[in-house]
Amino acid sequence: MEKFLAAGSIDELNDLIERDGLILEKMALKGAGNTPLHVACLASRLDLVRVLLKWRPKFAEKVNADGFSPLHIAAAKGDVEIARELLGVYPHLCSVKGVERRIPLYYAIVHGELDVMKELLLASPESVQETTAQEETVLHLAVKYNRVDAVHVLVEHMKDYNCASVIDQKDNEGNTALHLAVAAQNFEVVNFMLHQPHVVVDVNACDKNGRTPLDLSRREVIRSILTRAGARHGTLNRRRYSEGDIRDTLIVAALIASITYQTLRYLFSDNGMVKNGCEKETFILSLLSFLIVFFFFCKNRKLTSHYLFSDKGMVRNGCENVPLCSSLVL
Fold this sequence. Notes:
Layout: H1 2-7, H2 10-19, H3 23-29, H4 36-42, H5 46-55, H6 70-77, H7 80-89, H8 104-110, H9 114-123, H10 138-144, H11 148-160, H12 177-183, H13 187-194, H14 213-216, H15 220-228, H16 235-239, H17 243-267, H18 279-299, H19 301-308, H20 324-329
Keywords: ANK repeat, Membrane, Transmembrane, Transmembrane helix
InterPro entries: Ankyrin_rpt (IPR002110), Ankyrin_rpt-contain_sf (IPR036770)
Transmembrane segments: 249-268, 280-298
């Protein structure tokens, strides 16, 4: 069947059908899930597609073993004319779901076939609301496969057809398209999405791990535009401080206190009185030491309070002996 449909003429096909009215069905049975229409689409034979649609239009709705309908194939290959012929027979083909619930539009986007993509959107504007088995929208896939032009077309389409809410839709991991763009460090897409007139993208949407797009950013330029758009870190991330940083903070504070103590011991005599001529130095050193420790703990208040105290406000195990000055400023 494949060889004949790839190389055969229209006249030969018509002759076969006239001699045996079931020849197309027989070909389909031998095609391991592929109908003659699938094969014609794979071969990009527009002429054969037209004949087959005339004789057996129902073939257009068939999905093969790989999860492809004829329109899925045309979309992936970028065959605009074949896609038009198929849609001219059955406009609802845009919604035929293949493997993992993917519609033809997804394959046009993944393969960067903008012309077919536009044709499919024109035939079924609401298809942008369809999701895959992973709850991914077409915008998720466009970002995921770095199809920047497709992102532009899709966002404009969503605005024009009052589907802008799809922009903030989440996949099964809680990721919006903005999460994916930031995670991929795709400045062009992030910048485009955040500067859309009449559309407010949710820059603080959280995924299932409580992370906002800002938590995923590793580039300063992306963090900057996110921050200007009002982005914040996720609640969980704000509390996820590095234990190493916290310990370092407390160690530095302890060293300051220890040095101060040792210096003061030197300035005082054995009877507890300040040594002659050291009154001024003692006062200045005490004041400076207090101020250093005080401001140090104030600056690192969140770190130290998170480390020293549990969520219930109790002192954490092992922190009972931390110097009193730290608890005073907390």
